[in-house]
């Protein structure tokens, strides 16, 4: 694992003849790794073949404002969310029109999660709301109000472990978490959300770091967390740093099926990284 990802090198960049999409806010592979989708600042969603690096299609007016996040439900259906307060569902087989549009948030929608077992879609936004949607019926089934505690001026990547056992009394959810690892990040591109990700096997983290990405492990051997769980919080180990952008990197993603990593930056460039033997 360490040797494989330690040999990662910039492999290719995904370019378009017209650069109207603005910053890259989010990247998402389809579960089978055949499609890489790109959420863009200027209302667009880009689709690429990550193996050939060829452009498949541009959804030029996917939303009426910034596209913030993309999440695949299966190999053909995916959801997008936007500063226009909506969530849209799309089908790769028919990209000329949306499957449907979900309304419920009153401010920017920033994140989407999906549970394949229950087929529930979870969205959260700057209105402080978390909404759960039943994708079988495309209806809102639960509405939660969250409270934001504010943002730290420093940037850190932190890993937490859920504590075992039920609490004896009602406590904050934070009390059931224990910090195991952390590392300070480059405090650049302030005001933008940076999106890191775990490798498919959970042994490594890819994190935006300045004009590139850092590959981080729980130890230098990229062991599983359960095999190197510290008694007290310790630092994440840097496995490799990769720099191929000329602007601040905002998002990075591991391919679920290939030894490939993608990253996107403020100037709109998407870079791919693969091992070099």
Could you tell me the radius of gyration in angstroms? 19 Å
When the domains are counted, the total is: 1
Oligomer: single chain
Please bin the fraction of helical residues. Answer: under 10%
Q: Provide the CATH topology.
A: Methylamine Dehydrogenase, Chain H
Return the CATH class. Mainly Beta
Order of strands in the sheet with the most strands?
1-23-22-21
Strand content: over 45%
**How would you characterize the largest beta sheet?**
4 strands, antiparallel
Q: Would you identify the regions where 5 or more consecutive residues have pLDDT less than 50? A: 148-153
Indicate the mean pLDDT. 88
CATH architecture: 7 Propeller
Structural class: mainly beta
Number of strands: 23
| Series of H and E elements | HEEEEEEEEEEEEEEEEEEEEEEE
Dominant shape: globular
Summarize the structure.
This protein is mostly beta strands. The protein contains one helix and 23 strands. The protein has one domain: YVTN repeat-like/Quinoprotein amine dehydrogenase (Methylamine Dehydrogenase, Chain H, 7 Propeller).
What do you see in this structure?
With 277 residues, the chain is mostly beta strands. It has a single domain, classed as Methylamine Dehydrogenase, Chain H (7 Propeller), CATH 2.130.10. Helices cover 2% and strands 48% of the residues. It is built from one helix and 23 strands. It has one helix at residues 2-6, and strands at residues 8-14, 24-29, 36-40, 45-49, 54-59, 67-72, 77-82, 86-91, 100-103, 109-115, 120-125, 129-134, 139-145, 156-162, 177-184, 197-198, 204-209, 212-217, 234-235, 237-243, 249-254, 261-265, 270-275. The strands form six sheets. The protein has a four-stranded antiparallel sheet with strand order 1-23-22-21. Strands 2-3-4-5 form a four-stranded antiparallel sheet, with no helix packed on it. The protein is globular. One of its GO terms (cellular component) is Cul4-RING E3 ubiquitin ligase complex.
């Amino acid at each position: 694992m360490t040797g494989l990802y330690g040999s990662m090198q910039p492999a290719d960049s995904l370019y378009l003849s017209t650069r109207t999409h603005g910053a890259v806010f989010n990247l998402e592979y389809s579960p089978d790794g055949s499609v890489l989708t790109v959420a863009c600042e200027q209302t667009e969603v880009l689709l690429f073949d990550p193996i050939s690096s060829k452009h498949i299609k541009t959804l030029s007016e996917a939303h009426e404002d910034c596209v913030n996040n993309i999440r695949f439900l299966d190999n053909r259906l995916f959801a997008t969310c936007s500063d226009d307060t909506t969530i849209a569902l799309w089908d790769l087989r028919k990209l000329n029109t949306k499957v449907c549009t979900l309304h419920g948030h009153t401010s920017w929608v920033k994140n989407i999660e999906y549970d394949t077992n229950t087929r529930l879609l979870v969205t959260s936004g700057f209105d402080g709301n978390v909404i759960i949607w039943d994708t079988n019926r495309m209806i809102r089934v639960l509405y939660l109000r969250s409270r934001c505690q504010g943002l730290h001026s420093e940037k850190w990547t932190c890993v937490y472990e859920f504590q075992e056992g039920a609490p004896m009394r009602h406590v904050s959810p934070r009390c059931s978490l224990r910090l195991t690892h952390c590392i300070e990040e480059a405090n650049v591109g302030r005001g933008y959300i940076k999106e890191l990700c775990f490798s498919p096997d959970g042994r490594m983290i890819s994190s935006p770091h300045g004009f590139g990405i850092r590959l981080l492990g729980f130890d230098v051997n990229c062991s599983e967390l359960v095999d190197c769980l510290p008694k007290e919080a310790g630092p994440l180990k840097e496995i490799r740093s990769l720099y191929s952008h000329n602007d601040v990197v905002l998002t990075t993603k591991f391919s679920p099926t290939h030894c490939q990593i993608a990253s996107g930056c403020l100037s709109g460039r998407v870079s791919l990284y693969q091992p070099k033997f």
